[in-house]
Design brief:
It is built from 2 helices and 12 strands. By secondary structure, it is mostly beta strands.
Length: about 220
């Protein structure tokens, strides 16, 4: 009995020592912080020329003008972000609605517009395009409030809609939307992009991003 007790005691001490050694050898686990969840929110937009708000949706519409200087475009602020952020916006053609042209049978119009998305250093990130045709008032995407037309609508209205999605690299905190190409055929004739001329209309500008961690406090 004494012999068995001695063997049990030796085994217990050996196992305890081995477990203690393993605890000493095991490296401490590093706590890896979880990335912040992605956010999607309306973007802060600096609009050089506003069209107004939609009668149906209340959404704000902004003209995208032709040009080469990013500072003169529709400037969108991208919040501080980790990794790639995503810019999303709706792109429309610009149409001037005329009841007179409609009654006279000369209302048909066709539009193609291309805009560039640039950094504030004029580096091209991506492009967006929209193409649409007008035959009747039902082809308008929306009417804009604040005009002298029926129901207080403006004659100028957005037509067509293309959702544009652009990846924004880390470190880029502002981008600019600038008109590049306009090919329009209307009752007034052929229209093309010239500096300062409206190429397209933008609305519903949003940004999806993972917020950057707050800066570390200096000790």
């Amino acid at each position: 009995m004494r012999s068995a007790a001695v063997v049990f005691l030796v085994l217990t001490v050996a196992l305890a020592g081995d477990a203690q050694a393993q605890r000493r050898r095991a490296p401490a686990k590093k706590v890896v912080p979880r990335p912040a969840p992605a956010r999607t929110e309306p973007a802060q937009v600096k609009c050089p020329e506003s069209l107004g708000k939609g009668v149906r949706t209340g959404v704000s519409y902004c003209f995208v003008l032709a040009g080469r200087d990013a500072a003169q475009g529709v400037v969108v602020t991208i919040p501080p972000h980790t990794g790639i952020a995503t810019l999303m916006f709706d792109l429309h053609n610009r149409h001037t609605y005329s009841e007179e042209d409609l009654r006279a049978g000369r209302a048909y119009s066709k539009y193609t517009a291309i805009v560039g998305v640039l950094t504030m250093k004029n580096e091209l990130l991506s492009r967006g395009a929209v193409q649409s045709e007008f035959r009747t008032v039902a082809d308008l995407y929306e009417r804009i409030s604040g005009g002298a037309g029926p129901g207080g609508a403006k004659a100028v209205a957005p037509i067509g809609r293309e959702q544009v999605v652009v990846a924004i690299p880390a470190g880029v905190d502002q981008v600019s939307l600038l008109g590049e190409v306009l090919d329009a055929t209307t009752s007034a004739g052929r229209e093309t992009a010239t500096p300062g001329r409206t190429v397209a209309i933008v609305s519903n500008v949003k940004v999806e991003y993972r917020p950057a961690p707050p800066p570390k406090k200096k000790r």
